[in-house]
Structures are given as structure tokens and as C-alpha cells.
Amino acid sequence: MTGRFVFDLPWNEIWQGFWFSIPFLGILSVHEFGHYFLCRFHKIKASLPYFIPFWLGSFSIGTMGAFIRIRTMPKTRKQFFDVGVAGPLAGFVVALVVLTYGFTHLPAREDIFRIHPEYKRYGLSYEKYVYTAKFIQEEDSLGFVAAQAQGIVPKTDDKGVASKFIARPEVYKEIMEGNFSLGNNLLLHFFRNYVAESPDMVPNPYEFMHYPLLFAGYLALFFTALNLLPIGQLDGGHILYGLIGYENHRRVSPVLFVVYIFYAGLGVVQPNGAVSFIGSELEIFVGIPLYLLYLYLVFDKMTDNLRDTLLLSVGVLAAQWLVTVYFGVRGYQAWLVFGFIVGRFLGVYHPPALYEEPLDWRRKVLGWLALVVFVLCFTPEPFRFGV
Asked: Which tens digits make up the pLDDT trace of 236-250?
């Protein structure tokens, strides 16, 4: 008896995936090769780009980014600056091309019904209904089998026919928190209002991921802003170091890092003293010591002694609590994760160059332009979960 193995690939889905993966990986590649070619220009030994694969279940962008390994330290401020600025600006230019094409080739608004047939019953006013609790509680949007699998109790009519579904509170909360949308920044605001044929054609932030070119461009802006944070040895740190020199950078970079952590942690300590820390709700006697430990760890390598670290940590926590109580301002706690990486591993300070000569005026203009790009790309709350 013989058999034949049939390898049936979902080619349609794979083809659609290419519309996201090729532009996104292309932007990352251009970014890293910008660094690489400037290393070669300055005769700095560096590796070709490495890509970091990363898969996280059904929702994943497939990578944690890319990097090159610089094997010899740049010797001058000019070299630090050139290597740092080349990557973000090169990737940014390609991201603009991708976003321009994506926003000028948007499908008709009705295309959302191909992606979400369940929205069609509401017509083009679907946004008023589908991102609400009522939609999940009352509408058959999940399908009977999927609803039962998630523990949703069917609502039956007088003949016992299941027509709609009502989620148990704990299941309803889980579904609502699973909703995912993208934030906004100045550049997206410009594209939405001045590049798209009509602002009404731009997809809702909850649907951006279904538009591969827009999603790839948005992620490129996010990674560009992340790299351009003017702190430590990030690309933005190299640029700021080139612009203002070693001594000034040692004064400015820690201040910027404290401001960054301050914003990210707004709302961690709530007005009643309870702590909401990176997805966990903690009692005051557990949460506050844990959060203070986090602040101590991220500030430890930035200060000179234990006392200064503790004073800074307590001061930041107290200021965050006061701002939350009196102004109701909330930060974005996911930034705390990256802050930990910077504070503990990448470092807040920049190493000195052997030669501290100032930059010429052309590089200074380019450097301030890069910081403007950071402002345009930065999204205070880049990814939102829930409604």
C-alpha cells in the first residue's frame, strides 16, 4: 500500500503576509544597512545585520527587530554621530514611501465587510457599535462554536433556538481586553488628513493590522522612535552626544531618562494607594515595595551611591502619585519594560570618544532634523488593549 503526502499551503494567506513582511523587513534592513555602510565608510569593523525572529502565538509581527554588531569602538564624536544617525534616517525615508503608497491606495470603506462580515449589518456606521460592550454581549459575532469554546452562555428564544450570546463577566472581560488598537502620532495625523484621499477611508485604529502596508509603516515609525530616544547608547543617544558633547550629555541624558520613566509610570500607584503594575493589580503593601524595587534597579547604574538611588526612586514614585491624583494623567506602562532594558543593560550614559572635536554645521542640522523625526514618530501610547 502506498500513500502520497499532500503539502497544502494556504497560499492566499501567505501572499497577503508578504504585503506586510516584505515592507517591514525591508525597512528594518535599510535601517541596519545605514549603520553598516557608515561603519564601513569610517573603517569601523561591524557585522552584517542580524534579524531576531520572534513568534508569539496567533498575533505576532514575527521579529523583535534587527541589529549589527560593532566590533571596534568609534574614535570620534563625528563617527559616533554618523553611525547613529544613518540608520534611523535611512529607515525613516523608506517608511515614508511605504506609508505614502499605503495611504494613497486605500480600498473603499466597504472593504471592511470582507474582513469582518459581521459588521455589515450596521452599515458604514459600524464603528459606533462594534467596539462596544453591547456588541460583544448581544451580537452573534463569535459564532456558536467559538462562543461555546470560550464559555459563553447561549441566549435562546421561546423555541429553544440559540440566537445570541451573553458572556459571563470573567469571559466578557477577557474578550474586551483582547481588543487591540494602535495609537496615534503627528506623522500619522498628517497622513490621515492630508495624504489619504479622504480621512473617512482611513481604517479605524482597531483595524489597522488588517491593512499590511499601513501596519508595516506604523511599526517602522514605532521602532524609529524607539531607536531615536536621546538616551545612552541608543541611536538617539549617539546623535545627542555628537551634538552636545560628552560632559553635556552626562547632564542631559539622565534627566531625559528620569522624565521617560516618570511618564511611563504615571498611574502605577493609583489614588487609593493600590498598584497596577504591568498588567497586575497588587495590594499596597506588596505593590509599592515591588515598584520601588523596579525604580531602584533602573536608576541604580545612573547614580553614585545607594542613598541617591533611593531618594530618586522615592521622589519619582511620590511625584507620579501626586500627578495621577490631582491631574488624572496616565502613562504607558509598557514603556517601563524598555526602560528596564536601558537602565540595567544598555546604559544611560554615553562613553567618551578619543577625540572630542565638534561637529560641522551640516551634521548639526542633520542631528536636529533627526530629533524632529523622533517627535514626529513618537507615540505616547503605541499599542492599546481593550476598549
From this structure: 999 999 999 999 999
Please, what's the b/e burial string for 242-265 (b: 16 or more CB within 10 A of its CB; e: otherwise)?
Answer: bbbbeeebeebbbebbbebbbbbb
CB atoms within 10 A of CB 97: 13
What mean pLDDT, rounded, does the chain reach? 86
Burial status of residue 26 (CB atoms within 10 A of its CB: 0-12, 13-18, 19 or more):
middle
**Per-residue pLDDT at 5:** 46
Rounded to whole angstroms, the Cα distance separating 339 from 342 reads 5
Total domain count, the chain: 1
Residue 364 within any structural domain of the chain: yes
- Domain assignment present for 220: yes
Q: How far apart are the two ends of the chain, measured CA to CA in Å? A: 56
pTM to 2 decimal places: 0.86
CB atoms within 10 A of CB 328: 10
pLDDT over 50 at 170, yes or no = no
* Exposure letters 300-323 (e unless 16+ CB within 10 A, then b): bebbeeeeebbebbeebbeebbeb
Domain that holds residue 83: 16-108+184-250+348-387
Whether 354 is in a domain gets the answer: yes
Q: What is the pLDDT of residue 234?
A: 96
DSSP per residue, 233-294: TSHHHHHHHHHHHHHHHHHHHHHHHHHHHHHHTTTSB-TTS-EEETTEEE-HHHHHHHHHHH
Residue 232: DSSP 8-state: T
The reply to whether 3 falls in a domain is: no
Res. 165: pLDDT tops 60 = no
Phi, psi of 115 (to 5 degrees): -80, -40
Please say if the pLDDT value at position 21 is more than 60: yes
